[in-house]
Design brief:
312 residues, globular, alpha/beta, 12 helices, signal, C4-dicarboxylate ABC transporter substrate-binding protein, D-Maltodextrin-Binding Protein, domain 2, TRAP_TAXI
Length: 312
């Protein structure tokens, strides 16, 4: 018997057997991994990054997401540039540190603003930035955005000379513990509101946040226009409202990321923001109208395509 294809039935059966066997032994296509560089487990980057990882795994077939605990902004940028991460959270001022941002970087969007906290015990004599002279102060961990911002702040305030401030480079968790134990007099941390570690500290130990707003102008004139003034409201920590220095926060990726992937990551960032906001209130500020303001780095073409598609 000859089938319509012209191949004898016995031969066709053999071919089918071989094809079936080959199909059984073919490896399952590997999932593509997306590594998200965040920060401390008690910081905003980690909370939002972890939620984003869950959204990616749920909504992007063929992709797995992994969250990287890091020292935050500066390290995140280096990881993305060095191909150790695919996505990274960073303060915008890190990207103008030492000149023009690396052309290998692009952004998926402006996420929210980081506010610089100067935290002291409630009964501390420290009332202004100048009062830090001679005090033991955590300026943020090496590799973080906090340590860069604080270094600039101390410079414009004339407190960057040797011995002016007893600097300690501690991450958020260690800073909170050191202040609680009396091992430091104050600590800085830059993050979206509210910062979980600071909120927990304010519940357990009487604390106060120092007003830094008068220094924003000097930071702009000396370094970059990214610095602005924002208010830490009473609702953040149940403490008196205080004004401080703030800087936009961006989600950066390699400029070489495929356009379709950048498009879909941006889409998830915006369309699933309620999931991200449930992980941390800072994500409530995600908005396509402000997300496109990513200077000093350009929007990734795939991200730009998404924003154009939802433009009213």
């Amino acid at each position: 018997m000859i089938l319509r294809s012209g191949i004898p039935s016995a031969a066709l059966a053999g071919v089918l057997i071989l094809l079936t066997a080959a199909g059984c032994t073919s490896p399952t296509p590997a999932h593509r991994e997306i590594r998200i560089a965040t920060g401390s487990p008690t910081g905003v980057y980690y909370a939002v990054g972890n939620a984003l990882a869950g959204v990616i795994e749920q909504d992007l077939p063929g992709y797995e997401a992994r969250v990287l605990v890091t020292d935050a902004s500066a390290q995140n940028v280096q990881l993305v540039l060095g191909k150790g991460a695919d996505v990274g959270f960073t303060q915008a001022d890190i990207l103008v540190d030492g000149g023009t941002p690396a052309p290998e970087l692009a952004s998926l969007g402006r996420v929210y603003d980081d506010l610089l906290h100067l935290v002291v015990p409630a009964d501390s004599p420290i009332r202004t930035l100048e009062d830090l002279k001679g005090k033991r102060v955590s300026v943020g961990s090496r590799g973080s955005g906090t340590v860069v911002t604080v270094g600039r702040l101390l410079t414009v305030a004339g407190l960057a000379t040797a011995g002016a401030v007893d600097r300690r480079e501690l991450n958020l968790d260690d800073s909170v513990q050191a202040l609680s134990d009396g091992d430091i007099d104050a600590f800085f941390f830059s993050g979206g509101l509210p910062v979980a570690g600071i909120k927990k500290l304010s519940v357990q130990t009487p604390t106060r946040i120092v007003d830094l707003s008068k220094w924003a102008g000097r930071l702009r004139r000396t370094y970059s226009d990214v610095y602005v003034v924002r208010t830490i409201p009473t609702t953040a920590y149940d403490l008196p409202a205080v004004a401080t220095v703030a800087v936009p926060n961006l989600l950066v990726v390699p400029a070489s990321m495929p356009d379709d992937l950048a498009y879909n990551l941006t889409r998830l960032l915006m369309e699933r923001r309620e999931v991200l906001a449930a992980a941390h209130p800072a994500a409530e500020r995600l908005d396509p109208r402000t997300a496109i303001a990513t200077l000093p780095v350009p929007l990734h073409p795939g991200a730009a395509r998404y924003y154009r598609s939802v433009k009213p």
